[in-house]
Fold this protein.
Amino acid sequence: MNEGSKLEEIIESVMHLVQGETVLDIGTGFGTVITKLFDNEIKNVTSIDPEAWTFDRIEDTYRDEMSNGRLQLLRSRAENMPFENGAFDTSMAICSMHHVSDTIKGIQEIERVTSGRIILTDWDPTSAGRHNPHSPEDLQAVKDNVMEHARSNGYNFEEKGKWYLAWK
């Protein structure tokens, strides 16, 4: 599998869509999105993950950003976030929607907490076993849900080969 380098390519290719100063990263993982956001001088980043298994490593890397309030890490699920309506200028779920137990509820919650841009990417089923360890069937079910919601709610939708993008 080559998830790491492909993930960095995906993040880099959507960074131009990020708007505003407050960004919500859904699915902290190894902190790859956080790194790219700070590289692009985003002022305020909040990152959520239900498992938070890498928070210790990320806290070590971004100690200064956390102490000055530029980064907040929270253990939370996308389906039920502890934020006020419209709290973020941009919310992004980069290759993490397949980890959300209820895709539609997760997207609706992302919409609730976002005042501006929403960016959703995930792996195409053709990437299974090559760029990620998930089954084609699981990835297809998530893609179908994202596509249906995106097309019904004014999102742009783009096929990108081994991944796809929905944004508005």
Q: What stands out?
A: Residues 95 and 122 are 4 Å apart (CA to CA). The first strand starts at residue 22 and ends at 26.
